[in-house]
């Protein structure tokens, strides 16, 4: 496969950290409570990252 074809796949050529990948998934709309997100968080010890992200994105209520 050529480099041009690789770019068409929509995948980044640089590796990202598990933390960055989690933030990306949450940013594009994955539910923080979904089983796959919970499993990924547990496997990569990202509980603090997830809780921080959820806290940051909570809607402000009056």
Descriptive account of the structure:
By secondary structure, this protein is mostly helical. It has a domain at 14-56. 56% of the residues lie in helices and 0% in strands. The protein contains four helices and no strands. The protein has helices at 3-8, 18-27, 35-43, 47-56. The longest helix is centred in the middle third of the chain and has 10 residues, at 18-27. It is globular. The model has no long low-confidence stretch (mean pLDDT 85).
Query: Which structural class do you get from the secondary structure elements?
Result: mainly alpha
Broad shape: globular
> Element order, helices and strands?
HHHH
Mean pLDDT: 85
* Unreliable parts: none
Query: What's the alpha carbon Rg, rounded to whole Å?
Result: 15 Å
Q: Helix tally?
A: 4
- Give the helix level as a range of percent: 55-70%
Task: Write out key terms for the chains shown.
62 residues; 4 helices; mainly alpha
Short précis:
By secondary structure, the protein is an all-alpha fold.
Per-chain topology:
Elements: H1 3-8, H2 18-27, H3 35-43, H4 47-56
